[in-house]
Amino acid sequence: MLQWKIGDIKITQLVEMTFADNDLYALAGLPPMATPENLAKMPWLYPHFVTPEGVMINNVQMLIIETPSRKLVVDTCIGNDKSIPLDELAYMQLPFIDDLKALGHDPDSVDTVLLTHLHVDHIGWNTTKRDGSWVPTFPNARYLVVEEEFKFFRDLDDDTYGDVWGESVRPVLDAGLMDVVQSDHQADEGVWFESTPGHTPGHVSVRISSQGEDAVITGDMIHHPYAIGRPNWENPYDADSDVARKTRNQFLERYADKPVLVLGTHFADPVSGKIVRDGDTYRFDV
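User: That's the sequence. What structure does it adopt?
Assistant: Structure tokens below.
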């Protein structure tokens, strides 16, 4: 468990799982350029983000934000009991909620759930299965999702990852807990959405600013640190590759060599670092 202080705002990490297993990329396909040989050309990726064998390491994690007035969580991981068509992730039984409580955060104490996008591995703990039915995990929270993202997934005919809407979104809607907002929505003083589309149509990152200190939580706009060094590599998970590449390059240009802490939603520990220029590209300094 890692923690960061951004002025008077505290961020706490809660890891659901860590994996270094290319099989978990199989559903959508591995990023074609992210071979062991190509990754080895970015030595700063080692040892935190790539194994000696050249396998990418990723966390699935939630980030808890505590401001002076509110408690917010960013993305809710995969969840238990979900009917995901991937053996390693389907019908999991992990102690995530117990781990959350052990950090001193009862689900009832969460005020806001910030959803960077509506992919299966970011919204699973939106809901919990209780007596055979899906109910909101955070019953006192407002769940915030960007309008374009909401409409895209609401109207999606077939989700590759199963009944994601029915298991993890509709129960929150039915409970009256979801707010559909704009891509620059301010969730609390010092916490707001920053539009970073391409991975999905309404994808956002989360900006944090307090007492002259700044941070940004990437979501899947950059899903692994290699994309900092090679932002133009194709990522098969991106809904619109051209928009995603443009967004990554704009993000890197905006934050390179700036005193802004970058926290990758899927980055392995130590999760956070600074973007710095590295010749004609960038690297992630931890």
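The chain has eight helices and 16 strands.
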